[in-house]
Amino acid sequence: MSMTFWQRMGVGSVVAAMVTVAWTATPGASFQAAPQAAAQPADEVPTDLRPLLSPPLSEMRLVVQRYTLDRNTLDGNYLPGSGRQGGGGGRGGRGGGAPQAAQAAPQGFTVSLSPNRIARLKRFDLDWQAALAGVNASSLSVQAQTDVAALKTTIAANLTQLDADAAAIAAVMPVVPFAADVIAVVEHRMRMGDMDAQASAGALDRITKSVARIRRSLQDGLTAGPLASGALRVTPTMARNGADAVDAMRASLTEWFTHYNTFDPLFTWWMPLPWSHLEKALTDYAAFLREPVVAANHEAASVTIAATPIAPAVAPAMTSVPNLAEIIALPSDEMAPVVQRFRGVAGGRGGAPQARPVSYYERWLAALKTLDFDRLTRNAQVSYLYVKKMAELEIARAAFRPDPNAPRKTDNSGIEGAARGRAGLIFDLANEMIPYTPEELIRLGEREFAWTVAEMEKAATPMGLGTDWSAAVERVKNMYVEPGRQPEYVRDLLFEAVTYLRNNDLITVPAVASESFRMVMLSPERQLTAPFFLGGSQILVAFPTNTQEYDTRMQVLRGNNKFFSNAVAHHEMIPGHNLVGFMGSRFNGYRAGLGGTPFLGEGWPLYWETILYDKGFHDSPEKKVGALFWRMHRAARIIFSLKFHMGQWSPQEAIDFLVNEVGHERDNATAEVRRSFGGQYGPLYQMAYLVGGLQIRGMKREIVDSGMRTEKDFHDEIMRQGSMPVAFLRLAVSTMPLTRDMVVDWKFYGDLSSQ
């Protein structure tokens, strides 16, 4: 979204982050995109929306998008070439736009040296080729038939390009004979393999010696006359390409070194000297290739280049090709251009920064009446209701004046941030279609908190602690992995969740998604505001470094113990943020984008925390304590954030509440409160986790428990729908009849008007 209402009203950046990035779909058009709304004067509203409705789109549009993005994601799982970034970018991964055949860069040597990449992509392309051969094109529209043919051409071109890449690798390998060892080191980390510091130090030492040997051979080849034994001559092109390849390998090795250094004590003991020797050797070798070797201007190389095609990888146990028939059968949303027009010029969610007069939104409401609601597809009906509701909210905004000086309870914590005030919270809640008052939501938080206490007491008993849940939390906090082993431990948690989801048929987890996990360690500076995991296209892991003081290290260890980690790793990756970004980008265009909300962006991963707990995923008392700690924390967030914004609690009281009533380490509690009120997030963001999760649980009761959809189909359809306020998601996922004047919001938690 662009600037929010409160920013337009001069409140500042307090609510700028209310839109989560977790569900922002990667932009990009399919082969046949929805018609773009023509540029119009800012205050002009169409009097008749019927001409804006888009015709049926190509049935292949999402298939084409899926191939492109999946291939780009796999491409990022291997050693990058010069100028090519490795791994996923944002939460949705790299790539986007219409699929095109792979293209060699016009300047320099940018090809990845990894034969593993070529083998994997070749298998991927061949599998897609076979799947497309089974598509009955004659049953598709003319545009879709064209798209099928174009996609087949693209795949054939990509296969040809992979063989060209293999030839390019073969041509440069005489200059970088140590590349295979570099690839083994770098790609082992990219796959989150175990770290053996001594073996890795030995590998770096071997690479350094290999660099020295090839440099001596080339140095000997610079002398005039016949070549001495072992001397080597290469052309300027080979030398320049070799230097580019060396730079790319050095960049990847630097990332590899930074990932482990200071976090892993054995790595930090073994690695500094081997790394410094190798880093200097690679830097000097690249310069040597670009200067004296290029300057020698040898017309021919003294080596024979054998360009042998690289065979495709063995077929994976789980196919990387999705169910194409299912994707082809998905409908489109003919209201997409209308939503685009509304969001492009209207205020509010995703609109322009300037406010509009009430009459502007009244004209939008009148324009909607030109459409026959009952003849729209279901996707379009939801989009219709979105435009209607957002226009009504904008009209309501005109009458609201936020209190710029809402009372805030002060303290000496040093944590800044303005209080929203009760009236502001009520208006914010209405904007999110949450039909409860702040007091009712505090009551909800207290009920959920009490539920976690009761569950904690049950978990404490088999631990031999009676009902002393605080003692259970304290015991679990001291069950952390030894320094250096957190990456492997977290990796195993990620795959444990994927296996559980697949074995229990709870949601579709694409092979490419689970194959493409990546990990980054959070720096001590990042841990000041992010003391636990973060996630998206990759998981960001908090763990102590040797640069932190003893007390800080212990708090980080205790706050990221094995069982706290067990409860939230899947929140950040699959089925949480990572899967949301992955699937959201691939279904971009399935329907109009209706804007983001933290109640879905954070509520969806939180929902899965509750569902997995219900299903017994946490199969030991310690695991249950870890899961309940976080659920208690999310209930506490509702209580302390709303009480702060209503001027009832100070930041210090919020910190003390997290320490004394939840069991947080004090530094971690301070970081949480600092993040909550420091201006990065809107006043509803902290409560959005549990409240959003409860909204989705309310949807599940209505839709799954009633037999309207199966559980897996319910979850998969949420992934297809993309980002939108939860109240609209409920309408989109259900099969309940929709009417143009229906009430959108609903009391997902029942009556909270009394104790």
Taking the sheet with the most strands, its summary is:
2 strands, parallel
First and last CA, distance: 38 Å
User: Total strand count, please?
Assistant: 2
Estimate the helix proportion, in percent: 40-55%
Count of spatially separate domains: 3
Main-sheet strand order equals 1-2
Low-confidence stretches: 1-39, 85-106, 346-353
**Structure classification:** mainly alpha
User: From the alpha-carbon coordinates, what is the Rg to the nearest angstrom?
Assistant: 28 Å
Q: Given the C-alpha coordinates, what overall shape results? A: globular
Descriptive notes:
The protein is mainly alpha-helical. It has three domains: 120 residues, no CATH class; 118 residues, no CATH class; 312 residues, no CATH class. Helix content is 54%, strand content 1%. It has 29 helices and two strands. A two-stranded parallel sheet has the order 1-2. Helix 3 runs antiparallel to helix 4 and helix 16 packs across helix 24. The chain is globular. The two termini are 38 Å apart. The N terminus is likely disordered.
Topology:
Elements: H1 5-8, H2 61-75, H3 115-133, H4 142-172, H5 179-190, H6 197-221, H7 236-260, H8 265-270, H9 272-296, H10 324-328, H11 336-345, H12 358-368, H13 378-397, H14 422-431, H15 438-460, H16 469-477, H17 486-503, H18 511-515, E1 519-521, E2 539-541, H19 550-559, H20 562-572, H21 577-586, H22 598-601, H23 603-614, H24 621-645, H25 651-662, H26 666-677, H27 685-703, H28 711-721, H29 726-733
Parallel strand pairs: 1-2
